[in-house]
Amino acid sequence: MKKSLLMSLLLVTTLAACSNNAVKDKPAAPVVDNSKSTQVAQPASPAKEDAASTASATQTELAVNPLKDPNNILSKRSIYFDFDKDEVKAEFRPLVEAHAKYLTANPNAKVILQGNADNRGSREYNLSLGQRRSVAVKKAVNVLGVQDKQIETVSYGEEKAKSCKDETCYQQDRRVDIVYEND
Amino acid sequence: MFRNRLFLILFLLLPLISHAELTVEVVGGAAQQIPIAIVPFSSQAQANQLQQDSLSSVIGADLRISGMFRVLETRGVSNQPHSLSEVKYNDWSAIQTQALTIGTIENLPGNRLKVSFRLLDVLKQNQLLAMEFNIAASQQRATAHRIADMIYEKLIGEKGVFATRITYVNKENGRYSLQVADADGFNPQTVVSSKEPLISPSWSPDGTKLAYVSFEKKKPVIFVQSLVSGQRIVLANFKGNNSAPCWSPDGTKLAIVLTYSANSQIYVINADGTGLMELSFSNGIDTEPEWSPDGSTIYFTSNRGGGPQIYRMPAAGGEAKRVTFEGSYNVSPHLSTDGKLLTFIKQGPKGFKVAVQDLASGQVQTLSDTAEDESPSFAPNGRMILYATSVGGRGTLAAVSVDGRVKQRLRDTGGDVREPSWGSWLN
User: Fold this and answer.
1) Where in chain A do CATH 3.30.1330.60 domains reside?
2) Region A110-129: what's the mean pLDDT?
3) Which regions of chain B carry the CATH code 3.40.50.10070?
4) What is the DSSP string of B47-70?
5) Is B263 within 8 Å of chain A by CB?
């Protein structure tokens, strides 16, 4: 019994560590800059660190708050795009569906969809492209029953992009972040 | 090689130097550079009234960075004339100069200076220009730019741009600041600064105002700010993004971009923020509106056909026609003052580069040797194109001549520089 609990703890911690590493590869979510604003949700990574460090004590709580469960697909908050494209790729369907399911089940939950682009090309065009990407995700969850009033779309264009030199890096910047209010 | 090493040394040293001005490096030059000698101006003025860089060295630097002149060393010539009677033309034909500039600076009451200069034709041994300026001591650099403009116009046959100004955004220590500086990068003045991004500054045609996009309200909002009083108004803060302002040539309106829907679309709004009118109605992105100098047409970027290309439509709205056809990604249109040339950023096999298209023939030429170019704009005389690029992961300004022969790199000593725009003659 003790051993299996230890094993599952290890598993939880390892998974959490993995997902944290993945998160660290991304730039911080744009809302990090919102030091003055208290209304806007905190970025996903600190929340996950909390979840990881308190995993032993809150096994049951994890079950009730799927957003904070590092094993749950809902802990994944970023959808990535191809260069100059705004189509939500098939590989992100499960992620989109999971968030849509959560939002329809929790009609008071609200999200901000933050669109981003890599730093190549024009800043204005990338601002528009980031907007189209955030709206593409909005439409995808709308179709699955999520109401407009639960969703806000914004674009940061390339303004929050890293200084990249290769495709692996650019790819990280072409994304929509799903940021839950009060998360 | 030597140039590269010097550049590297400069690059390493510059962060240690506290002044945040731009330095200019010139690569290449026009096919036929005019040799000119500039004798240091004699000065009866008190030393404390004179600026650190002498007038003659500022004039020389201006002419040199234009790529149109070869500025000759004058120190080897024993006779250094300051007045017409002191000029021995044989001394100057011996060093094979075609033009000679001489001048004097004298004290006037009230901390003012009298600057006199003459431009002489060494071959014909006659005077081409003579001018006197009564200036405040603080106007020495501005006066040097005006003299350089006069020399340029006399010898090249078109107006110079040395006395014009540029604007750009500098990101430094996590803050963004919108700057206005002389065309050579000196005298940078901060117009506005914010810890959120600032993009897309646009000069009013009379040069007294800047429209720009600020993210300070956590989303893009367009402001118009007076450079005279510093006062600013919110021009557009509608639902969604408000961006890409561009003044109409008569200064009464701006073309802007809003996202009421998923798609950025082009609108026109009065300069006081009233009278919003939608201009484009497409299913794709329409952005980066740019008025033609005669006010009849708006050029813009649109991905209605798939990838982004440049289109034009009547300024009153109507059917759009595609303008760029080479390549799959052409953005950021900007027109020359005569409306004949279009510059834009073109993605090619070697990256994102400044290109120019002759609007009559449709012929396209890629100009820059850099690869991460953005935000091109013409100098008011149409000779050079100012743009932003990236060197060593940091944004910097660069300029290239419309024939691609002259390349300037302007490096700010402090930050990450982007979003430049060259002002008009009027400012």
Assistant:
1) 76-183
2) 96
3) 33-156
4) GGGS-SS-HHHHHHHHHHHTTSEE
5) yes
CATH number attached to the domain at B165-422: 2.120.10.30
B257/A122 Cβ within 8 A: no
Query: Rounded CA gap, B323 and B271, in Å?
Result: 28
Q: Please, where in chain B does CATH 2.120.10.30 lie? A: 165-422
Nearest C-alpha neighbor of B246 from the set B176, B315, B187: B315
| Chain B neighbors of A153, CB-CB under 8 A | 240
- For B39-93, the pLDDT digits (tens) are 999 887 777 777 767 899 999 999 999 999 999 999 989 899 999 999 999 999 9
Q: Which of B198, B212, B264, B299 to mutate to test the interface with A (most CBs of A within 10 A)?
A: B264
pLDDT mean across residues, chain B: 91
Residue B3 has pLDDT above 50, yes or no: no
- B387: nearest CA partner in chain A: A122
ipTM rounded to 2 decimals: 0.90
Size of interface A-B (CB pairs under 8 A): 95
Q: How far apart are CA B121 and CA B151, in angstroms?
A: 11
All residues of chain A having their beta carbon less than 8 Å from the beta carbon of residue B215 are 156, 159
For the question of whether the overall pTM of this predicted structure is more than 0.90, the answer is no
The superfamily in CATH containing domain A76-183 is OmpA-like domain (3.30.1330.60)
Q: How many other β-carbons are positioned within 10 Å of the β-carbon of residue A114? A: 25
Rounded Cα distance between B236 and A17, Å, is 44
Taking domain B33-156, whether its CATH number is 2.40.30.170 is answered by no
Provide CB contacts within 8 A for B121, sequence distance 6+: B98, B99, B127, B128
**Chain segment A71-95, per-residue pLDDT in tens:** 899 999 999 999 999 999 999 999 9
CA–chain centroid gap for A98, Å, is 12
Q: What is the dihedral of CA B259, B263, B266, B272, to 10 degrees?
A: 0
Q: Which tens digit of pLDDT belongs to each residue from B169-204? A: 999 999 999 999 999 888 899 999 999 999 999 999
Distance from CA of B354 to the nearest CA of A (A): 11
